[in-house]
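Figure-free illustration: sequence to structure, shown twice.
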Amino acid sequence: MPAAEATLIIAASEADANLYYAARFLAPDPFIFLEVAGEKVLLLSDLEIDRGRQQAAVQTVLPFSRYEEEARRAGEATGLAAVAVRLLRERGVSAVQVPANFPLGVADDLRARGVTVRAKPDPFYDARTVKTAEEVAAISHALAATEGAMDVAIGALRAAEMHGGVLTLEGEVLTSERVKRMIAAHLLERDYLAQHTIVAGGDQGCDPHEDGHGPLRADTAIIIDIFPRSIATRYHGDLTRTVVKGEASAALRNQYAAVRAAQEEALVTIRAGVEGPAVHARVCSLFEARGYRTGEVGGRMQGFFHGTGHGLGLEIHEPPRVSKIPATLQAGNVVTVEPGLYYPGVGGVRLEDVVVVTETSCTNLVKYPKLLEI
């Protein structure tokens, strides 16, 4: 009988979504996960083993120290790879499938000990791309918290006063950093963590991943992109709005109208069986038809130069993509829809909602309004 191929993950589940998905156990340090013949096994340190036996969604939790001691008595190495090999031999496993981000050094050690290691590209767990009702509920809860944080940010901008083109609130200059702190505090009170939140005004918003810094100005586009993670469930929300405190220029209004139309075009196109690149192409075509060209000008990209959307769940960016990358949408996918246009001198505009793909269309999980001037 040939030896079974098994799934092996060695990582810290706090930083590895595949491991958390498989074991539903959160730990800050690396541990060993093995799945073979329908059995999920964890090897945990003495520090974590009791908690693991109570919390992990696995059949078997074993002490790492036992295998380590056996290796020590046999005069063998005692690192993660050596201990993992003892477990593999015990289970009759000589070949393992690992995620694409599996540690190279550990993989080399396993191969040196006679284990065949095969990396599987993302999605490592295909089931992660199709969300269960429970997962959709967790994402919806995250989005509700995100909408509340968006309301805090836009509320601060609405309440701000304009002095020489600079926004002030309660007598102090309103900066990107200050608004991001408001967002983070609101979310933390609700057991969500916000990192790398974007509050980017003016030309800063023309770099889609610029966090934003310094004073916010009146009559200027301000992109607010909030994507927190639940401390309890680990699932993310993701929401972007573009607003102007004061009066937008005619060019900015037209740009905003084009982005909103492009998002609507994507929303009516998305359904099970549709190719992600086809959705993305329709967005690009709408922008082109309205005269919004994409390309490098003066050494800087402008126009629409990112994907239309991405999967959302335990990671902020996960398969499937709604972009040039091949992907067929399936019922149960949860994806963002976030076209944008970026032109220095006018500003950046991006609008982002999150939808669940259905057999015939998609369901928007976001209720937050879209208003340019506030």
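We now fold a second protein in the same way, so the two outputs can be compared directly.
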Amino acid sequence: MVNNMAQCDEHILTRVFTRLRTRLLGVAQGVVGNDDDAADVLQDAFVRLWLHRDELTDDNQAARMTMTAVRNASIDRVRRRQAKHLVPMDDQQVGNITDEPDDLRQHVYDEVNDIVQNELTSTQRAIIEMRELQGMDYDEIAHHLGMRPTAVRVQLSRARKRVRDTYRTNHNRHET
């Protein structure tokens, strides 16, 4: 009986995703602007949700989570595409990056680590470490820090924004 219940719950996501596919595709197309990227977004969102399928309790919750996941995956896709276009490169810079990718990667890591250590609150640093380095989920972090999962998400979002804005400010200062 329990096995059938678990099996049924695992299929909530598939059932809802299939039912809403046309609508989800429309949302993704509206954000990313083309059919191929929209199809990729749906796959990415489904994979993300599949990892949390055991948390789904009913169709309404699954529908809300699915819509949110597709919208967020669409926004992520657009941001990645924009980030690629924002990096000005001449031939010399391209050569340096391909010749020394580990050095560049280490330099960026060091810069971001400095920002995390110097610009974030101790709570934000702890959340970043637990989420990004230790791979803990929001509930685990919340339990560990005595916070609500929504507060963890808010603090993580603020921390990431602070790191991103500080990193961009530092690089804009160096370019001028």
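Summary for the second example: The two ends are 67 Å apart (CA to CA).
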